[in-house]
């Protein structure tokens, strides 16, 4: 995606660093949003994204990359803060992407694959019942499904034609048993991966009116917890390549 050249690398703009309203009251409008915000859970993911951006020759100031913490709550709070600071500085982001590594559902997204979320689903937001899990939608308390911005998603699909496109589940507790993996696959037939932050980031983006999408690189199959089966090096490499293609 071609982005206009912004002014601040890897840090949310502060009020004294961005274009300010005309003190004379001429009605000058804030500059058009240009920067892309990419948030990850941890610094290792953020560094993989930055490495990809550097390898593509993209001006690092065009893309702000920030780790926002593990889990949907931390991700929502930190992303909301970044978006609010940018808005207050009259330098809002043009879009936000939740990026990082993820577990892939066997037969849907293999280890090393790049995944794009058509929808981000809070898969454990709801209630248990004798008849099974009830998502928050059925409880009448909102929705646990957020669709990716169609224009942003289309641009990512164009940049990453080999990516697997499907639903990405957000879970506060990572799946670690075959039983849970089977239940999730049955409940979400279009799910291709699971991670821990996407829904939180999507909520923050939605409240700020900023386009959202989710991009993941698969490090392990969803199922019984087996760290020996994790392929972090391959996943970080795939994440870097995806960032290069998406931002180049």
Q: Could you characterize the architecture of this molecule?
A:
- The chain has 248 residues and is α/β, with parallel strands linked by helices.
- Helices cover 33% and strands 23% of the residues.
- The protein is built from 7 helices and 10 strands.
- The strands form 2 sheets. A 5-stranded mixed β-barrel has the order 3-9-8-4-10, surrounded by 4 helices.
- The N terminus is likely disordered.
The number of distinct helices, counting runs of at least 4 residues, comes to 7
Computed CA radius of gyration, to the nearest angstrom? 18 Å
The first-to-last residue Cα distance is 6 Å
What proportion of the residues form beta strands (DSSP E)?
15-25%
Helical proportion, percent range:
25-40%
What's the helix-strand series? Answer: EHEHEEEEHEHEHEHEH
Q: Largest sheet, described in full? A: 5 strands, mixed, barrel
Q: Name the poorly predicted regions.
A: 1-33
Major β-sheet strand ordering: 3-9-8-4-10
Shape: globular
Average pLDDT figure: 87
Would you report the number of β strands? 10
Oligomer: single chain
Name the features.
single chain; two-stranded antiparallel sheet; 248 residues; 5-stranded mixed β-barrel; 7 helices; disordered N terminus; alpha/beta; globular
């Amino acid at each position: 995606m071609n982005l206009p050249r912004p002014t601040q690398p890897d840090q949310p703009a502060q009020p004294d660093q961005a274009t300010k309203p005309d003190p004379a009251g001429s009605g000058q409008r804030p500059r058009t949003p240009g920067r892309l915000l990419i948030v990850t859970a941890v610094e290792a993911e953020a560094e993989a994204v930055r490495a990809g951006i550097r390898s593509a020759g993209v001006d690092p100031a065009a893309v702000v990359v920030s780790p926002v913490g593990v889990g949907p709550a931390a991700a929502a709070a930190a992303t909301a803060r970044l978006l609010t600071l940018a808005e207050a500085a009259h330098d809002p982001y043009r879009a936000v992407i939740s990026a990082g590594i993820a577990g892939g559902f066997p037969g849907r997204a293999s280890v090393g694959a790049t995944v794009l979320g058509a929808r981000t689903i809070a898969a454990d937001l709801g209630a248990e019942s004798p008849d099974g899990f009830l998502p928050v939608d059925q409880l009448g308390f909102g929705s646990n499904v957020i669709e990716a911005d169609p224009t942003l998603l289309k641009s990512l699909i164009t940049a990453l034609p080999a990516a697997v496109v499907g639903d990405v589940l957000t879970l506060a507790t990572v799946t670690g048993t075959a039983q849970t993996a089977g239940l999730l696959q049955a409940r979400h037939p279009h799910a291709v991966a699971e991670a821990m932050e996407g829904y939180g980031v999507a909520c923050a983006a939605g409240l700020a009116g900023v386009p959202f999408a989710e991009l993941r690189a698969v490090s392990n199959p969803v199922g019984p917890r087996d760290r020996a089966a994790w392929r972090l090096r391959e996943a970080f490499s795939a994440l870097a390549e995806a960032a290069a293609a998406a931002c180049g």
